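Below is how a single chain appears once it has passed through the pipeline. First comes the sequence as given, then the structure the pipeline wrote out for it. We keep one example in the README because the format questions we get most often are answered faster by looking than by reading.
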Amino acid sequence: MNSERRKDLVEKTPQIPPVFIEYLKRRGIVGGEAVHKFLHPTLENLPKPELMQNLQVAAQLVVDYMVAGRQIIIWGDYDVDGTTGTALLVNFFKEFGIEARWHIPDRFDEGYGLNSEWFINRKNTAISEEFLLITVDCGISNAKEIEVIKNIGGEVIVTDHHSLPEHSIPECIVLNPSQVSCGFHKDQLAGVGVAFYLAAGIRANLSLNSRFSNIAGQINLKRYLAFVALGTVADVVDLTATNRILVRAGLEVLLESNFIGLKELLLSCDISGDYIASEDIGYLIGPKINAAGRLGNSGIVVELLTSRDRKDAKRLSTELTDLNTERKRLSGDNLESALILTSGAIVEREKCVIVKGELHQGVAGIVASRLVEIFQAPAIVFAEKKSCSDEITYFTGSARSVDGINIIDILSQCSEWIERFGGHEMAAGLTVSGIKMNEFRKKFVSRVMSAMNERQVKPKKQFDIDCSVELAMNNDHLDCFRLLEPFGPGNSQPVFKDSSVTIVNTRAVGRGSEHLQVTIRGRYSNLKGIGFGLGGRVEDIQKRPKRNMIYTPTMNRFRGNVSWQVRVIET
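Resulting structure:
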């Protein structure tokens, strides 16, 4: 949403519709000041950069390298969080005339995190005798690799947000809000958010430097929040108060961005108009960027997001679109294969899903997520990979969990049989050798069964508040709905219930007729709706068209046209 449009909404909605006042009240947001602060978050309320542990030391080290003209290397993770954070820093350094070298590892050949061999192989050729390495969204679990890099002449700054390793963190400058002693510990920044704060610290330092002060004074850091919005939403990070401010501002500048690559990326996703929602990132932009990493070509994302040539940017965005199409095909094929390999009876007994075979490593996480949805149990999908060096078969897995089960804790309890692992409470990656797979499986199943038996999950509400579809979809209510953005963990979309809707038309749509398309009778005009995964309800709705409906408003983008529709959750 551009700034003028946002100002219009502020002026148009001095009186918040009662249904939203009640909704916010149930969320614990009560009183004019609290409501206004929530609906209109401002950058002024962000925590100060100096609260981040080690930020000032890290910023000073970067400035020392910039002033001395020494080499800076940025190493990012291959997902949206890592690639957007890398692009943010590369673009930021360019504004000062610094061409930082960057690298995104190939998930198949190099794996997750730092690869010390990459540095050793380039020593005294592409890499200087003295260099500064800045990691983005990775590095916290790479103590051994960092020691090797330091021994060949590198100084290291780790910027990461993943859980701290069980034993010790790397001996270098670490920026990671997961540290309890960090002033951002409760803010749960994404990796790109940590990179943004590093840029803010560098700019503040350079504003006092005679050589760079003029440039520093002209840099508008707000425009870099477009990258922060992409990475934070796509990485499904909790929308704490700080993240909500960062993402909201990022959404505002995303459509107005003067980064050529971002413009072409939005065009390739058919995103236009004066409003962009967090759903657009979650369902359109994020999957397209992630497709590159899943298929081993994340470098083109950073190339696109740092491009200064429109023709190149258009070509790169087309490549991303093609990769995403291939990713969708592979995901469907691999899910079918995984379901064939899965026994419902075993899942019911063991309380988890473990699948291994000739599956594609790049889509294992997507397939694991679908298995969690289907079986309502933690899932690991392993892809087989043979090591050329020792001829041992390894299995690279993606794990996904359910509410109430901390998957990284479970894996920590199985670490004796794991080569390497890392991740979050709900998602993780791991590698297990074929030799240890049976023992790992036994231990993992045992720990999951115990955890599932002790699991305590608060029942989820079907809906937040009663509100007729017609009322929720009028312009005043939709304007207020926009002000509740961004949506995600910690600030989920409001879900409404209408106890008396009449569906006048319905049909199943999608490749397998798995989705439901409806037309809902309105007083002045009918409303369109879509229900994902509800295609099997067509016959029942046709027999009984007047019914209850649980729903939420959503944007529909089709061939350049933007319209509001109802997303049917249950009916």
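The chain is about 45% helix and 20% strand.

See the next section for the split statistics.
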